[in-house]
Amino acid sequence: MDAKNKNSSNENLYPPVIAVLGHVDHGKTTLLDSIRKTNIAQREHGGITQKIGASEIEIKHEGKSRKITFIDTPGHEAFSKMRGRGVKAADIALLIVALNDGVKPQTKESIELLKKSKTPFIVVLTKSDLPDVNVEKVKQQFLKEEITLESYGGDVPSIEVSAKSNHNVKELLDLILLIYDVNSEKFTFSEKKELEAIVIESKLDLRAGPKATVVIKNGTIRVREEIWAGKIKAKVRSIVNDKGIQLKEVTVGQAVEILGFEETPEVGEIVTAKFEEKKELVEIPLEIQEQEPHEIQDEMPTFIICADTYGSLEALIESLPKELKIASSKTGDIESSDVLYAKSIGAVILGFNIKIKPDVLKLAETEKVLLRNYSLIYEMIQEVEDLLEGKRLAMLEQVYGRAKVLASFPFEKTKALGITVLEGRIAKGDHVRLMRGEEIIGESHVNSVRIGKDPTSKIEKGEEAGIIISPLLDFTIGDMLICHN
Ligand code: GDP
Questions:
Q1: Residue 208 and residue 237: Cα distance in Å, rounded?
Q2: If you ran DSSP here, which 8-state letter would residue 15 be given?
Q3: Which residues contact 109 (CB under 8 A, 6 or more apart)?
Q4: Helix (H, G, I), strand (E, B) or coil at 367
Q5: Does ligand 1 come within 6 angstroms of the Cβ of 126?
Q6: Secondary structure of residue 389 in the 3-state scheme
Q7: b/e map 126-146, b = 16+ CB within 10 Å
Q8: What are the Cα distances from residue 473, in Å, to 184, 353, 436, 470?
Q9: Is residue 127 in contact with ligand 1, taking CB distance under 6 Å?
């Protein structure tokens, strides 16, 4: 136990950091709003607009002022990346379940995350003000999820609350502090330890530059100090709390926005005081590898879907088989946090027309998360249908050849790529991936191959040819084409 962290009454000096998880519409946002209203400062100074994706509240608990930090980011992001270093964004989680709806799919996913991360949690049964709710029925549903609530002789506390009438909201906050204090042996945080903070949100502000909201778990961050979020350096220019107040230094249990990063760090990245060398990406080997089949359980896998635009996402969800279990869907590129989330719930990631950074690809490989990127909807549907029929997708793809783009020239209504084959072969009908440095630009197909004016079916190492790919990707001279299965 770290004595610095405790006072004589076994009470933690630092605010506990709380994440809120649960099924959509079960009342997470409303409860957080209601909690913020209990804040002493909020009541004293009137409505304070929250400036970052976290808020610190202060309450009177057993006659003393105590603080609690709530993070607003979606539950899974707060939980995903910690596994690598064992650093958790949240100390305690609230699992929100609406009494009129009971345990739902996202409740079950949250339970999985909580169990895997061994995070202590409180089951918060919301909407207790609604008529005809059956509390016992909902409590019993947890037994099926192998969770025994305290009222059933187990060790998971639960509380019924109404965010509408504020019933039991203060009692919930007291319960959080009680659990934090009772578990004080486990929470050995200290401002004297080396810095460990976690990025819970980040963005590029066009005026101010990269901004990251971090939760500090150990150590201290001071203005003008140098800190690192993975490989990204920051000379801390400013520290701003949830109330928009500039601070000179912050420590354990606080969530603040930091300005000064050279680039925008990823959500889930761990912030330290020193640069930590990470292994660089090794190139995709050319040899056809012994396939290590992805472990797909007998039960139906769940999927995470990432698409380039909202329009494609809608079209995909419309077209995918209805029985498909979709854990989450979003627009934008696949990030490391998606891979870790997929790992934690055993999901397969399906990307559509998106980019995958090499470190994300590498992470998926090491974590054995099946990650596929498609450029054609029907191909995605076909593979998913195969998977649902019980067929296994190969975890590692086979690479048949690698070619470099030497030239670009107009051909009929499209553009042809002048290429030279560096290794293996490129053949008509092949799947190809366009890479720029280590970045994946997209996936396509080889529609035709010509040596000079003569069509051919295949070219091999050392040969040069003009090829047409469909769909046409935004290629440039120097890009690489990887031909795969
Ligand atoms: P979230 O998706 O989990 O963040 O859910 P919201 O906080 O957006 O709540 C979903 C709906 O439930 C909204 O219409 C809320 O007004 C309603 N709601 C949330 N909490 C309560 C509550 O305690 N009682 C009642 N009656 N309705 C609630």
A1: 10
A2: P
A3: 76, 327, 345
A4: coil
A5: yes
A6: coil
A7: bbbeeeebeeeebbebbeeee
A8: 56, 10, 12, 8
A9: yes
3-state class (DSSP) for residue 35: helix
Query: Is there an atom of ligand 1 within 6 Å of 164 CB?
Result: yes
What is the C-alpha to C-alpha distance for residues 143 and 156, in angstroms, rounded to an integer?
11
Q: What CA–CA distances, in Å, run from 441 to 373, 422, 447?
A: 11, 19, 18
Residue tagged 């639960």 (tokens): 158
- Among 20, 21, 25, name the best residue to mutate to test ligand 1's pocket (greatest count of ligand atoms within 8 A of Cβ): 25
The token pair at 443 is 């996936």
Dist CA 257 CA 239 (whole Å): 6
Specify the pLDDT at position 282. Answer: 31
Residue 359 CB partners (closer than 8 Å, separation 6+): 278, 281, 336
**CA–CA dist 371, 348 (Å, integer):** 6
Cα separation of 25 and 19, whole Å? Answer: 16
CA 30 to chain centre: 23
Choose among 221, 233, 196, 212: nearest CA to 87.
Answer: 196
Which atom of ligand 1 is nearest to 126's Cα? 23
CA dist., res. 397 & res. 284, Å (int): 10
Q: How confident is the model at residue 130 (pLDDT cuts 50, 70, 90)?
A: very high
DSSP element (H, E) containing 481: strand 480-484
* CA dihedral sign, ordered 312, 314, 319, 322: positive
Burial class (CB in 10 A: 0-12, 13-18, 19+), 49: exposed
Q: Please give the distance, rounded to the nearest whole angstrom, from the Cα atom of residue 26 to the centre of ligand 1.
A: 6
| Mean predicted confidence (pLDDT) in 212-233 | 93
At 188 the pLDDT is 87
Q: How far is the CA of 149 from the centre of ligand 1 (A)?
A: 23
Convert the pLDDT of each residue in 373-392 to its tens digit.
Answer: 888 877 788 778 777 765 54
Nearest to 182 by CA among 359, 420, 6, 423: 6
CB of 55 closer than 8 Å to CB of 92: no
Distance, in Å, from the CA atom of 431 to the CA atom of 481, rounded to the nearest integer, reads 10
Distance in Å, CA 75 to ligand 1 centroid: 17
Q: From ligand 1's centre to the CA of 323, what distance in Å?
A: 28
Sole residue written with tokens 């107040």? 245
Q: Euclidean distance between the first and final Cα of the chain, in Å?
A: 54
50 CA distance to ligand 1 centroid (A)? 20
**320 exposure class (CB count in 10 Å sphere: 0-12, 13-18, 19+):** buried
The number of the ligand 1 atom at minimal distance from the alpha carbon of 163 is 23
* Model confidence pTM above 0.85: no
Question: 95 and 76 in contact (C-beta within 8 Å)?
Answer: no
Residue 94 burial by CB count (10 A; 0-12/13-18/19+): exposed, middle or buried?
buried
